[in-house]
């Protein structure tokens, strides 16, 4: 997808006999790539252009300008060939026919993709087994639970064995165990079958867990693209490591700051008296040492020799790590202001 823009024209009434045409750009000059075996996230608030982008990639919408290529094929000149290489899996219950059985749904979509009767029969049976719907294959979809419908959506999205899958809120409304199972399926499709996957989701922990790269949109424009952890570092800042120790002496502060700098943690150090803890020799005051650092989870192992050398005893250790959700909220607040 190279410099793609999608513009909609809408009519607005100004009175009984007058109206005007307004132009709205849903996507503005967006460049996006997906490699085989890669899971790419597409994030943004409602109205950011995520669904429009997926619909264009799925050949359901034509861009106003710019170009879309799939494996070197231009969508403008090779629409049918590209349709055999891509598929979309929406969240919820769209794109399923409730009065048909699960098997009949797959057979119908298989025919739309031009598969032979033999291929449709074999693929339908295989996919229904893979998603755990073999026993419910001949039940009407209206009798399926939400989780069963979403599993059928996955089978429907794979009926043409696409090289690229576009998932639009795939875990929307699903119970936690079903959502976890679906995330495992996405991981398998990318890592073991080499499918390129584009994922939109309001569950940012899901995006952080699955995605190799993330595009962040705002009102159709690309704000940034990077690995999830890099976006968190860039927007939400450093992590915090907290140690609860006894035996602290304030004279150790400059030595600890110097040692942290040597370790590559040029840190902001905060030390405060915490509480008294009971030891075999009586009460011992504990201190909470808080360190701002780029990588909090490696800090404890690096600090252990120094702590032992200076006679301190660690009672507990914890990390506060900003998440992708924290970063996106900060980014949206910054844009709003």
Topology:
Layout: E1 2-13, E2 19-30, E3 39-43, H1 50-57, E4 65-67, E5 69-70, E6 73-74, H2 79-83, E7 86-90, H3 102-112, H4 117-130, H5 146-158, E8 164-168, H6 176-191, E9 196-200, H7 204-210, E10 213-218, E11 221-226, H8 228-236, E12 239-246, H9 253-262, E13 268-279, E14 282-293, H10 299-309, E15 313-320, H11 324-336
Parallel strand pairs: 3-9, 3-10, 7-8, 8-9
Antiparallel strand pairs: 1-2, 1-4, 5-6, 10-11, 12-14, 12-15, 13-14
Brief description of this entry?
By secondary structure, this protein is an alpha/beta fold.
Can you describe this structure?
There is one protein chain. The protein has 2 domains: 34-234, P-loop containing nucleotide triphosphate hydrolases (Rossmann fold); 238-321, Alpha-Beta Plaits (2-Layer Sandwich). The chain has 11 helices and 15 strands. 35% of the residues lie in helices and 31% in strands. The protein is α/β, with parallel strands linked by helices and 337 residues long. Helix 8 packs across helix 11. The chain has helices at 50-57, 79-83, 102-112, 117-130, 146-158, 176-191, 204-210, 228-236, 253-262, 299-309, 324-336, and strands at residues 2-13, 19-30, 39-43, 65-67, 69-70, 73-74, 86-90, 164-168, 196-200, 213-218, 221-226, 239-246, 268-279, 282-293, 313-320.
CATH topology of the largest domain: Rossmann fold
Beta-strand content bin: 25-35%
CATH level-4 homologous superfamily of the largest domain: P-loop containing nucleotide triphosphate hydrolases
Assign the CATH class of the largest domain. Alpha Beta
User: Can you count the helices?
Assistant: 11
């Amino acid at each position: 997808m190279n410099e793609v823009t999608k513009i909609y024209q809408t009519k607005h009434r100004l009175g009984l006999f007058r109206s005007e045409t307004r132009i709205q750009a849903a996507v503005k000059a967006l460049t996006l790539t997906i490699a085989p075996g890669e899971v790419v996230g597409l994030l943004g608030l409602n109205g950011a252009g995520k669904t429009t982008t997926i619909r264009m990639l799925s050949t359901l919408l034509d861009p106003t300008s710019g170009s879309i290529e799939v494996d070197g094929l231009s969508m403008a000149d090779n629409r049918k060939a590209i349709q055999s290489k891509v598929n979309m899996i929406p969240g919820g219950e769209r794109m399923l026919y409730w009065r048909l059985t699960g098997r009949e749904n797959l057979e119908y979509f298989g025919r739309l993709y031009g598969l032979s009767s033999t291929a449709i029969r074999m693929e339908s049976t295989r996919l229904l087994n893979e998603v755990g719907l073999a026993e419910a294959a001949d039940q009407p979809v209206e009798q399926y639970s939400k989780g069963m419908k979403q599993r059928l959506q996955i089978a429907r999205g794979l009926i043409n064995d696409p090289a690229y899958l576009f998932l639009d809120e795939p875990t929307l409304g699903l119970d936690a165990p079903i959502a976890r199972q679906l995330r495992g399926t996405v991981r398998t499709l990318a890592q073991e079958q080499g499918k390129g996957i584009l994922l939109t989701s309001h569950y940012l922990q899901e995006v952080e867990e699955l995605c190799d790269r993330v595009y962040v949109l705002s009102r159709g424009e690309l704000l940034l693209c990077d690995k999830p952890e890099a976006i968190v570092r860039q927007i939400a800042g450093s992590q915090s490591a907290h140690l609860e120790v006894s035996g602290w002496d304030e004279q150790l502060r400059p030595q600890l700051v110097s040692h942290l700098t040597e370790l590559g943690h040029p840190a902001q150090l905060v030390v405060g008296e915490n509480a008294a803890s009971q030891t075999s020799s009586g009460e011992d005051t504990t201190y909470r040492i808080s360190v701002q650092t780029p990588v909090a989870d490696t800090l404890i192992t690096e600090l252990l020799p120094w702590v032992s050398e200076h006679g301190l005893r660690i009672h507990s250790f914890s990390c506060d790590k900003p998440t992708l959700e924290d970063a996106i909220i900060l980014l949206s607040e910054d844009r709003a202001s």
